[in-house]
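Table S5 (text form). Sequence records supplied for joint modeling of the two-component complex.
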Amino acid sequence: MKGARGKGLGARAGESAPVLRAVSWLVYAFLYAPIVVLVVFSFNAERQTAVWKHFTFDWYRVLFRDELIGHAVVNSLLVGVMATVVATVIGTMAGLALARHGFRGKRVTISLLYLPVIVPEIVVGAALVSLFGFIAMRLSLTTVILAHVAFSISYVALVVRARLAGFDRSLEEAAMDLGANRWQTFWWVTLPLIAPGVMSGALLVFTLSIDDYIITSFVAGPGATTLPLQIYSMVKTGVTPEINAVSTLLLVVTIGLIAAAQRLETARR
Amino acid sequence: MPARQECLAYDMSDVILRLEQVEKHFGATAAVNGVTLEIARGEFFALLGPSGCGKTTLLRLIAGFEQPDTGRVVLDGTDVAGVPANERPVNTVFQHYALFPHLTVADNVAFGLRYQSKIQNPESRIEETLKSVRMEGLGARKPDQLSGGQKQRVALARALILHPKVLLLDEPLAALDVKLRKEMQVELKALQRRVGITFIFVTHDQEEALTLADRVAVMNLGKVEQVGATEEVFERPRTKFVADFMGAVNFFDGFVVRPEKMRLRVTATEDAVEGNVESRVYQGETTRWLVRTVDGKLLTVVEQNDGVPDAVSRLKPGDRVWVKWEKRHEVPLQ
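The corresponding structure-token record, covering 603 residues in total, follows.
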């Protein structure tokens, strides 16, 4: 957004054509008005969402005392952290294997890795729930974690593989030449150099995990309510400013993580 | 001829590295096809040849990045075939230096020390090594803050700190500009003399090989065409390939004459070949002439420029000319 406004077509069009500028603002309004409304009304003292009374932090106070939401947040963090750790390790190994080794079926493997990114979530959810049924696995927080790992590995593998595309192999040979074995070479040379890619993959996984609703709704067992599930069940009985407040917090966390991931991805390439 | 005497001083009975019938195939192509070589302790040795001749593969076989299909790599009396790179007492200076970008200069140089047992006082050894390549006080820099020549020095320091039995250098000066390359040639040669370690370097630049090395092996199609003292290989090439690679381009039936050994005459001369000037290229110190002989052969003659115009320097394309050389400058080929 910053780039488009700051330079290039947007800037020039804005100077020469007021109509275009107006249209641009309308598009931005269309995109962001709901979010602005959400955030603004999370600070509204009136329970009716339609009327503005005055500024308050009350809903955030209510939020922090709400046990159901507290429980859901703990679940979401647990799932997010577990899924991030597992998916990052597996995804990094997959990315390394794809970037490094030629093996039979490599092209197929790459295509298969892209699939989870494009397969409709509802299909993934339905598939997972029937798989868990088939292997007679009781739905719980564990099944949620497994599901999140499953759809996240691809993202990490793709990010790490991209990071390795410009990797100078002679750096690893130099390490071995100086006496490091394979493991030492990986630990002291390869990993530090791909760390930004690995970290941005991890942040991406956490972001995907923390706000996933569709897949989670299929595989969550009793007592495994995550924050998005909790928010949705609250919305069913009517939107309250409390929901606005929790959504605002989720928004801030997500934007922060995505920004951090992008920073890492562009850092020191 | 001091350079010649210096190289004769090497004791070929004190062999640090011996390659015996080394072969390495990649798929169906033989990158190294039966190479046998002996390199003496303390030598500055060049592997010279065009790209794809197998010189880099040979270097990688010595380093341990590749393992030979057949043959032996004997390092200081031990057959190291099958020993991985990290266990060989050999270090490498990579073509593009391969400095670790996430580590400082000092940490780059110190990298190999942590894999060596009982290093006493590593800090002073790092500082000492940096000093030996004139990089003292720059230990805190990161590689991307260094110039090309400085990176080269750090790469040398990183390898030399481990006191390898053999130092391998892959096109060590190729990434530098011409002026810096000349400076580094002098420096590299002096450094090698000072540390006394055997240097083996790969290059496609015959002038660089002649300038730096004591002995040179000229490679072609995975085989060594000729090995010997630089002067000998330059003056007495044994095969057409070596002669051609060394810039001796005037081939006759069974022998070759270097262009700078030929002279131009503007009048008919006994035992000279008659022809016409085809072109002249002024090269500063010398002028390169192309002469088409009366039987259609193209000869290259390089004349020194002495700055005083004479009959030869006034020759123009199309002018009649006689090319003269001494019998002793004819180098017989196999």
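Note: Confidence is low (pLDDT under 50) at residues 1-11 of chain A.
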